[in-house]
């Protein structure tokens, strides 16, 4: 006996997509996905260098600029300029272009910096994300920078207008942000060599050393190198993310007149010396 499926008046037979139709549409879906993925990769690989310049400007409040940026986000160069921030007329530019190379990896991001005026060897930095924070590790490095670059940062550097050389060295330097707090390990040494200022006719005034040592409470030590007419000394600590520093400045007797104006500005005058207090 042959069974017949009943059909009602006005009813239409439903059609389900066949396997062959689904297979036919699949290549188009894969092709569209491939185009979108390829476009995304192209944007990431060939992202212009000015994207990095814009991000750095925003993060620094306009105080660190990468001008005339060339190349890509990953490999490029620019003129490094320091300014006093939004609305400031102060600006100072590094004598040579700054080159960078960004290399992302599974454990973080590696940055290599190079500039012919100031770095004998590329300076390598590695940024690694951590739970509720991040860690920045710097390779051991020595470099020399023009002191007048600081005038671009505005007050008080634009008033002092320093001239001379800044020899910067890092050793075992690691900065860790965890739970909103900054911790430091290693050592930073800055030698300010043959410094002079437009506030004094004495040139140079002297050479000085700043040493920052990491630990549970990072410390700053300021001392005067030999043969300096202007004497500087002091000690400070970073407490709760803020620097608390106490020091003093004075001059050798034969140079008091030439350095009097500068001593009045850099601290609170107390007789022949100037007391410096921060924090």
* Integer average pLDDT: 85
Number of helices, counting only DSSP H or I runs of 4 residues or more: 4
**Proportion of beta-strand residues:** over 45%
Secondary-structure element string: HHEEEEEEEEHEEEEEEHEE
Summarize the structure in words:
With 279 residues, this protein is an alpha+beta fold. It has two domains: 48-130, no CATH class; 137-279, no CATH class. Helices cover 19% and strands 47% of the residues. It has a 16-stranded antiparallel β-sheet that branches. The longest helix is centred in the first third of the chain and has 27 residues, at 19-45. The chain starts with 18 loop residues before the first helix and ends with a strand. Residues 37-43 have low confidence and may be disordered.
Concise overview:
With 279 residues, the protein is of the alpha+beta class.
Topology:
Blueprint: H1 19-45, H2 49-59, E1 64-71, E2 75-83, E3 91-93, E4 98-105, E5 108-114, E6 123-130, E7 133-138, E8 141-146, H3 157-160, E9 163-178, E10 181-196, E11 206-215, E12 219-224, E13 230-239, E14 242-251, H4 256-266, E15 268-270, E16 273-278
Antiparallel strand pairs: 1-2, 2-3, 2-4, 4-5, 5-6, 6-7, 7-9, 8-9, 9-10, 10-11, 11-12, 12-13, 13-14, 14-16, 15-16
List keywords for this structure.
279 residues, 47% strand, globular, single chain, 16-stranded antiparallel beta sheet, alpha+beta
């Amino acid at each position: 006996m042959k069974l017949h499926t009943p059909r009602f008046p006005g009813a239409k037979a439903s059609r389900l997509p066949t396997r062959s139709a689904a297979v036919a549409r699949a290549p188009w879906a894969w092709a569209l996905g491939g185009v979108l993925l390829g476009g995304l990769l192209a944007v990431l690989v060939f992202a212009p260098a000015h994207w990095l310049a814009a991000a750095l400007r925003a993060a620094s409040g306009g105080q660190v600029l990468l001008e005339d940026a060339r190349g890509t986000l990953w490999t490029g160069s620019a003129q490094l300029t320091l300014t006093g921030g939004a609305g400031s007329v102060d600006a100072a530019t590094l004598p040579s272009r700054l080159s960078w190379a960004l290399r992302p990896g599974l454990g973080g991001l590696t940055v290599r910096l190079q500039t012919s005026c100031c770095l004998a060897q590329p300076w390598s930095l590695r940024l690694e994300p951590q739970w509720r924070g991040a860690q920045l590790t710097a390779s051991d490095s020595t470099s020399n920078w023009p002191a007048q670059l600081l005038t671009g940062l505005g007050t008080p550097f634009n008033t002092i207008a320093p001239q001379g050389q800044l020899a910067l060295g890092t050793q075992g330097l690691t900065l860790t942000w965890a739970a909103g707090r900054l911790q430091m390990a290693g050592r930073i040494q800055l030698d300010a060599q043959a410094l002079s200022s437009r506030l004094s006719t004495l040139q140079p005034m002297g050479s000085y050393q700043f040493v920052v040592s990491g630990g549970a409470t990072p410390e700053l030590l300021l001392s005067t190198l030999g043969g300096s007419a202007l004497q500087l000394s002091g000690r400070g600590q970073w407490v709760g993310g803020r620097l608390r520093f106490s020091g003093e400045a004075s001059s050798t007797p034969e140079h008091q007149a030439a350095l009097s104006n500068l001593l009045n500005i850099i601290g609170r005058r107390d007789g022949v010396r100037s007391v410096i207090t921060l924090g």
